[in-house]
Amino acid sequence: MTDRPLYNTFSKEELNALLDRETFERRTLSFYRYTPIGDPTSFREEIYRLFAGMQCLGRIYVAHEGINAQMSVPEPETEHFLGELDKLPGMKDMPIKWAVEDDSRSFLKLIVKTRKKIVADGLEDDAYDVSNVGRHLTPEEFHRHSLDPETLVVDMRNDYEYEIGHFNGALNLQTDTFREAMVRALDELGEQKDRKILLYCTGGVRCEKASSWLKHHGFNDVNQLHGGIIEYARFVRAEKLPSNFTGKNFVFDNRMGESIDGKVISHCHTCGEACDTYTNCSNDHCHVLFIQCSKCAEKYEGACSPHCQSILHMSEEEKSSLSHEVLSNNPVAGFNNAAIRRRQFEVENTCTVNRSHAFLHDKKTAPADDFPRRQNPFSSLLLYKKQKYQDGYTPSLWPGWNRVGGTDRW
Ligand SMILES: [Zn+2]
Ligand SMILES: [Zn+2]
User: Fold this and answer.
1) Are 232 and 242 in contact (CB under 8 A)?
2) Which domains are assigned to the chain?
3) Residue 166 and residue 245 in contact, taking contact as beta carbons nearer than 8 Å
4) Model confidence over 345-372: pLDDT tens digits?
5) Parallel/antiparallel/unpaired status of strands 197-200 and 152-155
6) Which residues are close to ligand 2, an ion, with C-beta < 5 A?
7) Mind listing the pLDDT tens digit for each residue in 87-129?
8) Active-site residue numbers?
9) CA 33, CA 74: separation in Å to the nearest integer?
């Protein structure tokens, strides 16, 4: 028997056409559980067959440590799906998080992958006790504590998630991956071992690890938002409370975000207009995740920069003469960081929005101490980013700035 039935082989267009023809609605949901799975490969095959048979779509990771799933389930199959999930070993009484905004288009296909870990923390299995988790707070409890100025709210997600929405006053760890965030959290929280710490992430799966990691390092009052922002959003809607989370909750499917309070707190990386729509650069060699408004998407044909736009119009022959670094608009090999890249674009375009302009303009008069110590193509950008935080863009809890992707402290 071949394993073909276990993989989806349609193109994106074919998959979209299939969704167009569907006569039922879909519901987007997610769940996770840390539970020992002895043979992730055979478990993967079992759930692939089962879920594909119900026309479920989504992305599921299976590892020895458990399961993490984001899915789109046909509305008529919902009860059947929940019943079958319940019968699987280790999956009984799974807490399900339902999306608050749904267009039945969150996923185009079903992907079930085995992974070393369901959430990559970059640490050895025995580095800390993942079962010694922090206190789970209900959305109501989290809401109440997050309004207390004495508590420290920490966003365990990535910088690009924080940018479009976050809890008011939350600490942004300014990282691109969870493994960086784990290291950075210790750095940033420092000696505040007795402070009440409130962790949150999208659905809660990252906080399970982050809270045990902080407890392992001697933090005494570690709390986490049970069910993540998704459950919090449902809670404030149901209770008609003013949300302490402002903006959009970034989600890892085609929707790329669920609006929580209807506010747009981020800006188009190209022109600076208020915008919270993420997209990937249309230059496939670059593909960087960035925010772009519809006007700029049209003007730059979905490219992140004039450079990437020019790549779009090159012949295959022209492209073959260029290095990967040039094609991917990535001047430093392996340095692919949206947060830095969008600032590169702003400078290329002498963007006059937000604080960067004033700062770049002021560069001549800035005190010598403020200048970067290293000489590289990103110097001014790195410095600008630092300035942005000193400017009070994020809460003053932020004590300094670490170079992303390295260990240098400024
Ligand atoms: Zn724009
Ligand atoms: Zn690009």
Assistant:
1) no
2) 4-114 (3.30.70.100), 135-247 (3.40.250.10), 266-390 (no CATH)
3) yes
4) 555 543 333 322 222 223 333 333 332 2
5) parallel
6) 281, 283, 286, 304, 308, 329
7) 999 999 999 999 888 888 899 999 999 999 999 998 888 888 8
8) 201
9) 22
